[in-house]
From TrEMBL:
Any matching Pfam family: DUF1499
Protein name: DUF1499 family protein
Gene: LOC100277870
Biased composition (Low complexity): 20-31
Region (Disordered): 20-40
Length: 215
């Protein structure tokens, strides 16, 4: 989920000035030093972000699917998160509290109430939870499904922003599920991705799943 902030600043007139506000603003503008063309200032950056938000209000702003989604080859894992604070991934280092999320186990050591389930059964349970759980009223849509991988697009009720959520069942005897949840646009998400992952986990725990650690 993308959130944009609009910031502006007017330089105050010098003491004792009695010119009209419009003239004062024009005078201040003419006396201002030329902008540094070598880099975009922090204020310009915020203002440009607000322009994108305005376009989002006019158009359906879903963004493009990132090219790096899917299971990475070396080493086999889901992608890491960008430096922005709008993503969580089980592939991150556990020391990265901003981006790390613990994997899930569909046959935890403490055991399920019934017999252990297969990977195929676990995938069915996951799909059921994904389609029924809608944190912040985001609409989930399963857009890719393989024997060991699921990708879901979550669309926001306002502007149509899209978050990409991936689930991967690694090969081997472990009954683990890796996942990644990330916003396509913006720089912060106010913990929307963490909240989504938590609500999914809580729903899965009712079916017998468990998280490898608290999150």
């Amino acid at each position: 989920m993308s959130t944009y902030l609009v910031s502006c600043c007017l330089r105050p007139p010098s003491a004792g000035a009695e010119m009209p506000k419009a003239a004062s603003a024009a005078s201040s503008s003419s006396l201002a030093p030329p902008p540094d063309t070598k880099r975009v200032g922090r204020r310009d950056f915020v203002l440009r972000s607000s322009e994108i938000a305005t376009l989002a209000a006019i158009f359906h702003f879903s963004g493009s699917k990132p090219s790096y989604l899917g299971v990475q080859k070396s080493p086999p894992s889901l992608a890491l998160c960008p430096a922005t604070n709008n993503c969580v991934s089980t592939s991150e280092e556990i020391s990265d509290s901003n981006h790390y999320a613990p994997p899930w186990n569909y046959n935890p050591k403490d055991g399920r109430s019934g017999k252990p389930i297969t990977k195929e059964e676990a995938m069915k349970e996951l799909i059921e939870v994904v389609t029924k759980t809608k944190p912040d009223n985001f609409t989930p849509r399963i857009v890719e499904k393989k024997d060991d991988y699921i990708r879901v697009e979550y669309e926001s009720p306002i502007f149509g922003f899209v978050d990409d959520v991936e689930f991967w069942f690694p090969p081997g005897n472990k009954t683990m599920v890796q996942y990644r949840s990330a916003s396509r646009s913006g720089f912060i998400d106010f913990n929307a991705n963490k909240k989504r992952v938590k609500e999914l986990r809580l729903a899965l725990e009712k079916k017998g799943w468990a998280s490898e650690s608290n999150f």
